[in-house]
Design a protein that fits this description.
Blueprint: H1 2-17, H2 26-39, H3 41-93
């Protein structure tokens, strides 16, 4: 999910940084390139990439923790079922 959103955002920034997609006139392209440099769009793209990477790391960590917690609960349930199968015949004998 995060990676899909990141790809869309980075694709939009890449399109923004390509003056050939905006205009075919060389003078407009040079002006557009200077404007991109003045507004530091490349730095913004790097910042966005770093934030997307951080979100991806957080998402991966959260998924790993939830998977570990689910595995722990499954282990507890299996142990309880095994104990029930052992204790049940003992209770019936009493």
């Amino acid at each position: 999910m995060v990676s899909e959103i990141g790809l869309v955002i980075l694709d939009d920034i890449k399109d923004l940084m390509n003056p050939h997609k905006i205009t075919s006139d060389w003078y407009y392209q040079s002006f557009y390139q200077k404007m991109l440099d003045t507004l530091k769009v490349r730095d913004y793209g790097k910042l966005v990439q770093e934030k997307i990477d951080s979100l991806q790391d957080l998402y991966s960590t959260a998924r790993q923790l939830s998977a570990e917690q689910l595995a722990l609960w499954l282990e507890v349930a299996i142990v309880l079922m095994i104990l029930w199968e052992i204790i049940k015949p003992i209770i019936e004998l009493l």
